[in-house]
Amino acid sequence: MNRLSLLIAAVMLTMLTACGADKVPGESAEQVGYEMPGDETATIESGENAESADHEYEKSTITYSEPIDNFSFRKDLEKNQTDYAAYYFEPSVSKQERNACIAATDRMLSRIDTSLPDIEVMVLKPESYDGVSVTGNRLYLSPQPWDSADYLAKVLLAGYGEWGNYGLAYGYANYLCKKAGLDSGEAYSESDRQKSDSILLMSAPELYDLNMLCFDDKFVSAEDVEAAKNNACMFVNEYLSSHSEEEFLELLSASGTVEGVAQANEVLEEFYAENSIECSLTEIRYQFGGVLSDYAAACEYACFYIGKDWQDNVWEMNPRVSENFLHEDYREIREFFECNKHQMRQYQELFGFDSYDNTLSVLLKNSGKVKATSYYGAGSHTIYLESVVSLMHEYIHSVMFGHCDWESHWKTEGFARYFSYKYDIYSDDLLNEDWNSSSYIWVQEYIDSIGRAIDIRTDFRDIEDIYVHALGYKNPNSTYLTGSCFIGYLVDQYGEQAAIAYVCSDNEYNAEWGKSYDELVQDWNQYIEDNYAQYSLN
């Protein structure tokens, strides 16, 4: 090397040394990183420098499915495993996108001060998958901003329970983001700190639930979304001021279970009470719906999947149902699921069997057929719902399956119609609307002619009796209505529990009543004749 070259090299070395004089250990002029716990030399690239990371991948094949329309796929992906999570990418996802995802996710997860569960992140191109879903410990989604609490909240749900309270996950995700940001020297404004130190009021008591829908402006106002985020962050910060992160993560995990949601609500209620907030928390749990569902909801008795294009096929006839029912108003949504949770419990207590299969799925997805009807599929233990007015009818089928003669029409359809009309709130209003339509005006005329004042809203028995007599039906197996009318007669004569026991019996002869099935039908026919002979259809 000549003297000039040596001189140039010396000058460059001096300049580089000067540029690095103010850097902390572990930093370079091209790359800013942070120290990983237990590894003083490891660094993670920031988002703008993610392209420089060089991760190794192995080929892997995954399968995925969603309940609605049997949506599923099988894909060959490329997997990278870090100390914090397993990452799977479609081959066409760019290196820069992959590195940004891994860097941001690892950076946040490394801030958790306890052992991590297995977490898998599946990143798919929007053309392949444009939804968000958490199934078990896997998160499926397409590329998005990786350095955000919204994204990390989804990752946490994959780790700590897919049905977990979204607000708890979001608040903790924000806590981790700030923790990582402060470690890297990023500054947060004083206004941000002040906002997180005070509760923001929401427009209704039920919105303090902090479930997933309360963070989505499709279901609540933008102001309520902002308040939900703020309140979630405030709750988590306050909780962690007196509890360990391990205790918090146990609470997050519990919030996604039937047993633990009450525990999580109790802690939230204490927090709100301390801040003089009146709230009304639900035990309904929500999760992302994926590609074809808006969202999913779960209670102790069933999981509901609300198709994005689902519309109640008789919404115009039902005063309780709006045009966009279950798609836009959280209060309306919550009322529906709370109501049906109560009704499902009521039917189980009424029928009183030793056990039930509460793994029931309810799919709200239109079939596209002109006169499509709801039905229960016993093989898949699934209700396919075209209208909410049919939900309890089909639910009764699901709990009665295996307990009665499935080939006997009056024991299946008649029984389900009678008990759904008697107790179901959502069919109640539609029934009232239906019977008062022009098609059945003669029913009301007959009621007027015999001088009987009845409340159609709550007493459908008279109406069914009138209809059966007017059309001359004699066989309980003729229609849903005749079966319901016959069941109603048995309940009137012998009581609900006795009638239920008879329906569930294989014996046509009832020793306690001293009558066979044929004799009971004769008695029913005579009852109709004696009470409704004043009217004949012209």
Protein architecture, described:
With 538 residues, the chain is α/β, with parallel strands linked by helices. It contains 17 helices and 12 strands. The N and C termini lie far apart (119 Å). Strands 1-2-3-4-6-5 form a 6-stranded mixed sheet, covered by helices on one side. A 6-stranded mixed sheet has the order 7-8-9-10-12-11, with helices on one face. It folds into 3 domains: 239 residues, no CATH class; 105 residues, no CATH class; 133 residues, no CATH class. The N terminus is likely disordered. Helix 10 crosses helix 11 and helix 15 crosses helix 16.
How is this structure best summarized?
By secondary structure, the chain is an alpha/beta fold. The protein is 42% helix and 11% strand.
Oligomer: single chain
From the spread of the alpha carbons, the general shape counts as: elongated
Q: Helical percent range?
A: 40-55%
Flag low-confidence runs.
Answer: 1-48, 184-191
> H/E order of the elements?
HEEEHEEEHHHHHHEEEHEEEHHHHHHHH
Averaged pLDDT: 85
Described by strand count, sense and barrel closure, the largest sheet is: 6 strands, mixed
Give the end-to-end Cα distance, rounded to a whole number of Å: 119 Å
- Label the structural class: alpha/beta
Strand arrangement, largest sheet?
A: 1-2-3-4-6-5
SSE inventory with pairings:
Layout: H1 3-19, E1 58-65, E2 72-81, E3 86-89, H2 95-109, E4 120-123, E5 133-135, E6 138-141, H3 149-160, H4 166-183, H5 190-195, H6 222-240, H7 245-254, H8 261-274, E7 285-288, E8 293-298, E9 302-307, H9 330-351, E10 360-364, E11 375-377, E12 382-385, H10 391-400, H11 409-423, H12 425-435, H13 441-449, H14 461-470, H15 480-494, H16 496-503, H17 517-532
Parallel strand pairs: 3-4, 4-6, 9-10, 10-12
Antiparallel strand pairs: 1-2, 2-3, 5-6, 7-8, 8-9, 11-12
Helix pairs in contact: 3-4, 4-6, 9-10, 10-11, 11-12, 11-15, 14-15, 15-16
